[in-house]
Design a protein that fits this description.
The structure is a homotetramer of 335-residue chains.
Chain A: E1 2-7, H1 13-21, E2 26-32, H2 36-45, E3 50-52, H3 55-59, E4 66-69, H4 76-85, E5 89-93, H5 100-113, E6 117-120, H6 127-137, E7 144-154, H7 163-178, E8 185-191, E9 201-207, E10 213-219, E11 221-233, E12 237-241, E13 249-261, E14 266-278, H8 286-300, H9 308-326, E15 332-333
Parallel strand pairs in A: 1-2, 1-4, 2-3, 4-5, 5-6, 7-10
Antiparallel strand pairs in A: 7-11, 8-9, 8-15, 9-10, 11-12, 12-13, 13-14
Helix pairs in contact in A: 1-8, 4-5, 5-9, 7-9
Chain lengths: 335, 335, 335, 335
């Protein structure tokens, strides 16, 4: 039975608390949040849980094995570092940190101490993404050729990070999870309609050494909500529409083969369209899978799907995109 | 009564012939196409029209006032130049030419000779785009802030031009028609899955000196067909879905205002969502509007909506996008 | 401040409790349910509320002004009668009762005692139905001509009532609320695939003395979920799709006029299609409106929208439909 | 090589002419239509075809083997009878005739003379219906349990027949083609908003001796166009949406099993939902299949899919529906 502490009880905290409380091999022992009214909410629904305003006080509790950090991004690094130094396993909200250096330091720290450090990239645990991963791993769609995502709506303008840092972590974590190849570089463009240097519309391309390409369209200023990802393989193609209540993933038996006619130096392309399959997806709540993976990673000393290394790569891509936007769309190489 | 000659009777030629034949003040006198079976098709349906294999022969016919060129893009420049030099008004298929220099030369030639030179950017004459233009001009949507277009499907790979030259002219002509400001620069990225240097997926951003931004997503390798354009103003926003049979244009009373709280240096954003309006659109065939505008431009010596100057700007943007792709997404300034 | 008792804490009970608890001028004093685990749920979330297994015990509490009955339909009559005889105002779940006689008796009893008797036809309090009512009352759609509803999905088979008693009360209450004219008769057909006399698919027509017509398509055995109502007026027509997250109501400026050409005894019909309007709807929770209307009806001695008389008419129509099905679709007159 | 004559060159005639002209083993020799301008259209596009105003003159042409009748329904019987008596094979537009007696007489006449009599129920030859038939025959969906169709739009009011005679023949022919069991009876209701006894909205149930049921919703006065058919089997269910450009048929692995718990006399239902399959359909033009089937039925003396007997049953069902509407929805037995 692992004892857990939760830091931050804002929008996402209650979901984390509910899901970790439902795990058989874990008990949430304490919750920290600076706001008294938020702590009141914890006490009302979970009278046996200790509450406190000070996060460091929570980290200092000896009996706590693992800490879940659900605070604004700028505080992730300090809190996670303290928790790791105190010997606790750590689960952090996405994005992991606001700088690549911080993410690297945390990743190395966890490694050197033999602690689990995981990032809550919840989407990796959805029925939809699990099914897509399964289709790719079973070579159903063939070699992946592109990933094209739109995540747009009339969204809350964030005061400190641009629309990519706000929305793209979902899609970038999926990309990194689903596609094995290492990203080579990033180009990005965008605009700030609030004239404060924080883009509310941004476009991001991730380039690879192979002929794979990924593109991300993010906006807080769309009149319609779109959550759509196209994943094209050389055998089949997938359309993942997260707004569909029960038909999120569609697999198209659609493709083309090409060859060059040697005599005539001409391109010959064969097109093919066949059936469409809409697989039934697991209805399990994704965050419950996050909790399970975190706990079993602690128990078995394995890396979770949403590992620190994956979370670090997400930060690298976001950082590169921001650099590219500020440099007129220039290609930024990922190291 | 103007006498017209049509050069090229391939995919689009029959539509041009049918629409020009239906005009009261015009008669198509001759059609030229190198392929005998295509000419046979003309003679069967229009027995009174002269047919010939040689385009120059057609241009040499004295009685012909205007020439319509519907051949592959690489031949546009030579044919249009000959026709202009022979004193004919000219309508060319889009894109106007395959280089900026050629388009400039044709535009100047037409100007200096007092001839109409028009490009068949058919979309400008659709009921949908006319309505959107009307909404912008009447200041219904407020100041335009962004233009975001996706034109993707499992499309024919072109052997000589990339997916932007194939698909984006529609969207670029709309952008130039609808938004008054001059584009400042272009960034673009893309990939060629056929490894012949011809991109089948490409993304293009058009930047402006103001805070307006435009983005284009084009692909020949999508399992689903998408033809969607978002046009956001600071008062209302438009979603134009060209695949909708009767509800192509939707006007959202959606928006946000922002100000900076001076004391706290904090961004305050007010969101607003209201009714959605789906205006009834003119059902008139767009190509019939093209024919009318060409003929009335000749008659009244006015510039058509789809003027040579607009067609030239489309070519400039395509050329800049191609340069950007070949230069790793670098910003290319439009002069 | 009214004191309320709630009888039945199954599927809908928690929603009723939450909404009544949020009302300023009411307090839920007691909850009765035969199942101990359900009562446990009440005590956990509302420690100050009295709980008991026996409904009659609750009705006997002197301080209670009004009783909310959310039990299976077969027990509605007995419980409501006891509560009315004890001088309590009553809100009953829909359908009001399982027989016309019972509904009449309750309605008369409440009238004679000067008590409010209301049926929880929640849909009347949705933003969508409020807007449609407003459009009809303001004569925007003209004279109503038809009401056509489909409410189908893969639903739970009820053990004691057919699919009309389960699903149609929503649509029948809307019909009665929106359309002023008294129904004249009912025809219905259906089938029981479980061979127990309980139809899982049924179709019902409500006829009127005027040329208005209403039709209802209900099924527990559809692979797709549909919640769609068409309401046609002689000026405009409404499509109400309850599954749309934010665009539930669409108003079509669509219609036709007809006249008979006197000389030729020929029908002349003029068709018209114009804009479509999608009005913004109130996001308020419908059940909160139910609670407010119940309490203010008690306070001001007015009839609620979802009055006993409306609830009685719903039962009359359901009863007539059942009779028609059992009599091979024969017309059953509504008295 | 069969020689054909076509009577009637209105809305559908040109499609018939084009498709029969494209058949290898047939030549259309003559076209008859009372309207000179329609005949002019034939001569322009098919200069070698004889034209005439008088249909009887066409029937009298000895060389003609088969006659295609595409005139208004009231003239079908007289023309078809003459053609059959003259020894010609006959293809008639749907519905076959306007009375059951006429349809029976024609069917018997064709039988006794050994001639092919076929009705142009084009839908039976679509890729969608062929695929559904294949799925039923291969026992993929299990035993059919229901057929539920909606065919509504803002349609042309017919001056002489109601909306069922106009729209339902498509759906009734599908029902008869797909489901083997003989219909037992019909109930129908409807309304005439033009007050001329011709219903513009009508609902029709077809009952069977087994627990299969079919229902049809037809309207000329819907603001939205719907063409949707649900076909439920006890193993899978099909949704056929004819307005979908490329995804017309969806097969749901959805169902339920039921049994009665013997001890408790309680109904137990198990629900199941699985993948959805969208099969690729043949893109072949349906009318070309009609032409082929007619010609090969003549050649091989077989019955076509859209046989006279099927066409007669469609007329029987329409006639029963009309009787039911005029008798307040009363059940009409099919003999």
């Amino acid at each position: 039975m692992y004892k857990l502490g939760l830091i931050g009880y804002g929008y996402w905290g209650p979901n984390l608390l509910r899901n970790f409380s439902a795990q058989k091999d874990a008990a949430v022992m304490a919750v920290a949040d600076g706001r008294l009214d938020r702590l009141e909410g914890v006490r009302k629904n979970y009278p046996s849980i200790m509450t406190m305003q000070n996060a460091e006080e929570l980290i200092d509790i000896k009996e706590i094995d693992a800490v879940v950090i659900a605070t604004p991004v700028h505080s992730h690094y300090q809190l996670a570092k303290k928790a790791l130094l105190a010997g606790k396993h750590v689960l952090i909200e996405k994005p992991m940190t606001s700088s690549v250096g911080d993410a690297e330091e945390l990743t190395n720290l966890a490694d050197s101490r033999g602690l689990v450090l995981m990032v809550d990239h919840t989407f990796l645990y959805t029925g939809a993404v699990s099914k897509i991963k399964e289709l790719i791993d079973a070579d159903i769609i063939g070699k992946p050729k592109y990933f094209d995502s739109a995540r747009i709506n009339l969204g809350l303008f964030q005061p400190d990070v641009n629309v990519l840092w706000d929305l793209a972590p979902h899609d970038l974590s999926m990309l990194l999870y689903l596609v094995d190849e290492k990203p080579f570089s990033v180009n990005a463009t965008g605009i700030s309609h609030t004239h404060n240097g924080i883009e509310n519309i941004a476009y991001m391309t991730v380039n690879y050494e192979s002929d794979f390409i990924a593109h991300f369209n993010c906006s807080w200023t769309s009149p319609v909500k779109v959550r759509q990802t196209l994943i094209g393989g050389d055998r089949k193609m997938i359309v993942y529409n997260d707004l569909e209540p029960s038909e999120k993933v569609r697999v198209y038996d659609t493709g083309y083969d090409h060859k060059t006619d040697e005599d005539k130096n001409r391109l010959l392309v064969d097109y093919r369209t066949g059936d469409i399959q809409i697989p039934k997806l697991s209805p399990k709540e994704a965050l419950s899978g996050v909790a399970e993976d975190f706990l079993s990673s602690i128990a078995t000393k394995k890396q979770p799907l949403a590992s620190a290394r994956l979370g670090l790569k997400v930060v690298q891509l976001l950082d590169a995109a921001q650099k590219s936007i500020k440099n007129k769309g220039k290609e930024i190489i990922i190291h």
